What we know:
By secondary structure, this protein is of the alpha+beta class. It is globular, with a radius of gyration of 16 Å. Strands 1, 2, 3, 4, 7, 8 and 9 form a 7-stranded mixed sheet that branches. The longest helix has 17 residues, at about 180-200. It has helices at about 40-45, 70-75, 95-105, 130-145, 175, 180-200, and strands spanning about 20-25, 30-35, 55-60, 80-90, 115, 115-120, 125-130, 155-160, 165.
Amino acid sequence: MALTLGACKQNGKSDDKVPEDMEVSNNVKTEKATFGGGCFWCTEAQFQYLDGVTKVESGYAGGTVADPTYDEVGTGTTGHAEVIQVTYDPEKISYEELLQAFWQSHDPTQLNRQGNDVGTQYRSVIFYHNENQHQLAEHYKKKLQESGAYDKPVVTEIAPMTDFYKAEDYHQDYYSQNGSQPYCHFVIKPKLEKFKKAFKDKLKN
């Protein structure tokens, strides 16, 4: 499945004011995007390859328990989803392109699961950081559904970003640190290779 989202600017105006969700480091303005697409080990590995993405952190969002642990989230009782928080340079990669990568990275028609990973913590979800992201996510979800790319409804949840809790250190950069493990070899690697082919023009050198 490949959905062309276009490369339109989020707005045509220049504004020197830095929005709350934008950070400035070494004169580079970066923004954040937060996505849940099943196990965060898989999605983290995919987004790390995109040019313009400066950081990817695995964590938890959308729940009711403060600072949850991996084991607590795994019970499905905290309400959190496993997510990645992506820091990106909008001059190199747009939010629209990140949405395209998000929907390419998993099956958005599976409700509260991805493959053998079952539970609300594995739900397909976009947590938007501002109203512009909200409108773009809703627009392209509708466009994806109308494209006929899937014969089942797209069940991706779209919700406002509240608190992001970074996952334990051993979850960060998981694939590159544990590539020889069976889950990485048999589950993550095939997804990653498919993803890299779909986004070959947007990968880091």
